[in-house]
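Sequence and fold:
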Amino acid sequence: MKTGVHEEMTSSFPVPLVGAFVTLLPLDRSHASELAEAVRDGELWRLWYTSVPSPEGMLAEIDRRLSLQHKDSMLPFTVVDNATGKPAGMTTYMNIDNTHRRVEIGSTWYRKSVQRGPVNTEAKLLLLTHAFEKLECIAVEFRTHALNHPSRRAIERLGAKLDGILRWHQRMPNGTLRDTCVYSIIAPEWPTVKANLEWKLCCPRDS
C-alpha cells in the first residue's frame, strides 16, 4: 500500500536517477567546487529574474538545500552531464505535499553550454517518470518568473500547461516583485507527455 509522496521520497532517497545523457546524483557538499565552475559558464547568477547561486555562494546554497532535505521539504540533485562526467547544474523536488501527492520540480539551473540540448529534457523525463510511476503523484508543478521567457518556453516544451499567474508573489533579491507563472502536468496527461519527451530525445532538435 502506498503511503504518499512525502513518505515514499524520504524512504527511497537519496538515490541516483540515471539516463543516457544525464545522471541525477543526490546533492552533496563535495560537489561545490565543480558546481561553482558550472555556474560560471554563462554567469547565470547575473540574470536578475532568476535565483541562481554565485560561485562564492555555492556552498551556502548547497547547505540551504540540504537543510530543507533534512526537514523533508526538498530533495536536491546535482545534474551530471554523462558526456563529460561533470556537473551541469542543479535541480530539486520541492514543496512536497504528502497528503495530496503533489510535488514541484524547481530551483533548477544549467550551465549555458548545455542549455537547449538533451540535458534538461532527460533530467525532466527522469524526475517526472519517478514522480508519476514510482511515487504515484497526481500532479507535478513547475514555477517560474513571468518575465523568464526562456524558462517558460522550456516548461511549455515539456508539455506542462499554465494553471495561472500569482501576481506579486515573491520579492526578488534586487527588490522587484515577481509575478510567478504556475504550470503543471497531471497524471492523466503523463503517458502523452512521456512519449513526447522520449521522442524529443531520440530525434533531431529541429524535428
About this structure: The radius of gyration is 16 Å. Strands lie at 17-18, 22-26, 74-81, 86-97, 102-110, 139-145, 161-171, 177-186. The chain has six helices and eight strands.
